[in-house]
Amino acid sequence: xxxxxxxxRLAAQIGLRGRSFPAFTDGNITDAENDADSxxxxxxxxxxxxxxxxxxxxxxxxxxxxxxxxxxxxxxAVRMDDRAQxxxxxxEVGKSLKTFNDLQQELQ
Amino acid sequence: xxxxxSMMLGVMTAIGGFVDIGNLVTSGITGARxxxxxxxxxxxxxxxxxxxxxxxxxxxxxTRKPIFHVVRERxxxxxxxxxxxxxxxxxxxxxxxxxxxVSLVLQMVTGISYLIWVPLAGLFxxxxxxxxxxxxxxNIFGLLGLGLIVFVVALFRLPTxxxxxxxxxxxxxxxxxxxxxxxxxxxxxxxxxxIVPYQVIFFSSGGREEGWTSKSMTEMRVNAFIGFPLGGLxxxxxxxxxxxxxxxxxxxxxxxxxxxxxxAAALGxxxxxxxxxxxxxxxxxxxxxxxxxxxxxxxxxxxxxxxxRHPPGAAARFHLVCLASVIAxxxxxxxxxxxxxxxxxxxxxxxxxxxxxxxxxxxxxNDARLMGERVNRRWANAAGTFFMLIMVVxxxxxxxxxLLTKAGQ
Lengths: 108, 409
What we know:
The complex is a heterodimer.
Chain A: H1 2-16, H2 22-44, H3 51-79, H4 83-107
Helix pairs in contact in A: 1-2, 1-4, 2-3, 3-4
Chain B: H1 2-18, H2 21-34, H3 39-63, H4 67-75, H5 77-110, H6 114-131, H7 134-145, H8 150-157, H9 162-170, H10 180-194, H11 197-209, H12 217-245, H13 256-302, H14 316-333, H15 339-365, H16 368-371, H17 378-404
Helix pairs in contact in B: 1-7, 1-12, 2-10, 2-12, 2-13, 2-15, 3-10, 3-11, 3-12, 3-15, 3-17, 4-5, 4-13, 5-6, 5-13, 5-14, 5-15, 6-13, 6-14, 7-13, 8-12, 8-13, 10-15, 10-17, 11-13, 12-13, 13-14, 15-17
């Protein structure tokens, strides 16, 4: 998931600087969104072994859902060529990345 | 002067033609994930490829017979059927991966799903196999594939930490936090991507298409010993370009378009446009070559008339096998199996089958009755044995690693 978010963010940033073609930027973000969606649904279908794990599962599901939504918003903004919305969605993607990094540190 | 120009053209097409979807994908994945710690695998694969291509080319030039024909004569019909059968199946799987690669490049450019492009890519590949003269096919796509040099240029525009990359390259080891089996798995895929069987079949059969004789030995050796290693350097450049851009961001490559991102970051749209053209040329040339190699393998084993130097009507069964391979590969790609996954499986299975393809070449190149004064020298046998041992280890390790790591997860 971290890789998907980072990949979409990098592609969008390059696109914003005018260093990429729209179809290429869109393709990178769409791939990241599809992969994130797949992670989201795979993780959501897992059965937690106990109630403590269930709490973690809920936390993780929320983060995955937020991350996938941020990528969808980014993809929509890029396809509409709305630079302000792209910047806003990039902020959400950045927040999601931070959430995952925090979760990673919490689990270590 | 004409001979020098011809040799230079041969080297340039060998460089451009060396890289295919397997190199693009595996170099991108490993650079982003392991830095330059797997440089050695590209070097091993490239040197092995150059060595065995030279042997196969020498056999073809001296005997004036294609490699499968000589292998069948030397090893017998039953032994060589395993060799021809495995090569043909691998060629079709590789062709499927290459057609997927061509379609992914067209998706990158147009935004239209790669599945729409697959039948068109298959049709275009078959038309090139059927109608385009051999020299044109080799030169046009080989030279366009040279555009991959843009990755080298990008390295100088990116914040590349040269000393750190050099340190990783000369001190190979599993990077911290990465599982060792996965690192080894990708070492196998890098070797497999460099030493794919279709390239040797195409190289030696292409020699017959171009009428190589004992006098062509220098040209053939320059192609094998200079062209292919320089092609290997392009693979390393693709790997290296991922290191300053993708690795620090924690991006793991799972799609072909991610491999192009470092060039966009460094050189913008102009660089990206060159990447599109060179990716297309590299994957399309490899599609045509692997399709042709299927025809070469079967027709040479069966003793049929073969090759693009004959009009299609005079080598009808050869062209029929090529067409059947293109149809089978197109159908396989249309099953919607991810082309990058197909590529990983193709290079791993290719690595597993390497001894089967290359061992007969060593035997034939050692046959003094066939080869006369061009029989393998001691150094060639020593190097051939050394690389064959490596290939046997790679072959034995490939499938367990594939299963253990779930194809590099």
